[in-house]
Design goal:
With 344 residues, this protein is mainly β. The chain contains 2 helices and 23 strands. It has helices at residues 20-26, 30-36, and strands at residues 42-47, 54-62, 74-79, 89-92, 95-99, 104-105, 110-116, 119-124, 130-139, 147-149, 154-156, 159-165, 177-179, 190-197, 209-217, 249-255, 259-261, 266-274, 287-292, 298-302, 305-309, 319-326, 331-341. It is elongated.
């Protein structure tokens, strides 16, 4: 008879006591948040589909050392769960990257594929408003010789596949003529959107993108505005914003876990934005951190980041308020409750 406690090649050592799974579930996202505070992670700006809203986030970018040319224009990004939707943009390495696939998570972090945007597409909607979107372009005519026609007339030919966020404006791109030309002045290459595959990459609550086909057509100097890079240009009906309409601070968000481990430091970041969602820089003359507590919590402040620490076990189970104060009128812009928990 073989004793159950003896280690043999047919048995594995049992080093678990039965409570490890529960402990892991309690802190499953904590290790990832701590990783984001190290040099492994990087700070990027997350934008929505039309760049009207933005905020800085910490994330981990993977795939920077690609083995092929196509892979060099693609990355994977790891972020806290619930951060991304398909059709969002990340501003990373001075370029815009489009969240291409459906984000997914493993209960610890969220992962998504991002692709490089090479071109800023411009067009007008039915009201004459100029719309802009950063797009990803790939060739849809790899083996096309670039010409068609007969012996009398020779026309250029080319086709692109366009990936773009699927918002209310981009849905109307079907049939429109647009410039796709990197010349800084007097562009001449005009394309017509001839096909829109809107259901293919629609992920419902997880966002979505459009897959468009653009076919090369001829420039019409009578209707195409080369200076504004708008084809079939019509006069705008909506006047641009005047300086009097400039927006002010609208929202402030405190980013960070709501539990402070006794004996461990934790950092919190303030994200400020105006009413259009644009990032507002931290100004020490306008904003300040405030810890509202009945006991002492050590603080280390650097602009929009505050690091908190306590090693007094008597405070375990207690809580305090972390605030962002607007100095001109001492109003509270944002507030979060932080609880002190056991460190182990």
């Amino acid at each position: 008879m073989q004793d159950w406690y003896l280690m043999t090649p047919d048995t594995r050592p049992n080093a678990t006591g039965g409570y490890e799974n529960e402990g892991f579930l309690d802190w499953k996202e904590d290790s990832f948040y701590e990783t984001l505070e190290t040099d492994i992670a990087t700070t990027v700006v997350l934008y929505n589909y039309d760049l009207s809203k933005s905020r800085k986030i910490r994330c981990i970018i993977q795939g920077n050392t690609a083995d092929t040319q196509l892979k060099s224009m693609e990355r994977t990004v790891l972020v806290p769960i619930g951060s991304l939707k398909a059709g969002d943009y990340l501003f990373y390495e001075n370029e815009y990257w489009l969240v291409n696939g459906r984000p997914g998570n493993n209960q610890i972090y969220e992962k998504a594929v991002i692709i490089e945007c090479q071109y800023l597409l411009k067009w007008q909607n039915n009201n004459g408003d100029i719309i802009e979107r950063w797009i990803n372009l790939t060739s849809a005519s790899k083996y096309d010789v670039g010409e068609n026609g007969n012996h009398v007339v020779v026309l250029t030919s080319n086709n692109y596949t366009i990936l773009i966020p699927n918002d209310i404006e981009s849905f109307d791109l079907d049939g429109k003529r647009v410039f796709i030309d990197l010349h800084p002045t007097n562009p001449t290459r005009v394309f017509k959107i001839t096909r829109t595959d809107d259901p293919l990459y629609n992920y419902n609550s997880h966002g979505g993108i459009l897959n468009l086909i653009a076919d090369k057509v001829e420039l019409n100097k009578d209707t195409d505005n080369q200076e504004l890079r708008i084809c079939d240009y019509i006069e705008q009906t909506t006047p641009p914003l005047s300086p009097d309409n400039e927006t002010s601070l609208s929202t402030a968000v405190i980013r960070g876990k709501k539990e402070l481990k006794c004996g461990f430091q934790r950092s919190y970041i303030a994200d400020l934005s105006d009413s259009n969602g644009n990032v507002v820089d931290w100004d020490d003359s306008k904003y300040k951190w405030n810890v509202l507590s009945d006991f002492n919590v050590e603080q280390n402040i650097s602009a929009n980041t505050i690091t908190l620490y306590t090693d007094n076990e008597e405070f375990i189970g207690s809580s305090f308020l972390l605030q962002i104060i607007y100095l001109p009128d001492t109003s509270v812009l944002a507030e979060t409750k932080v609880s002190i928990v056991e460190g182990f």
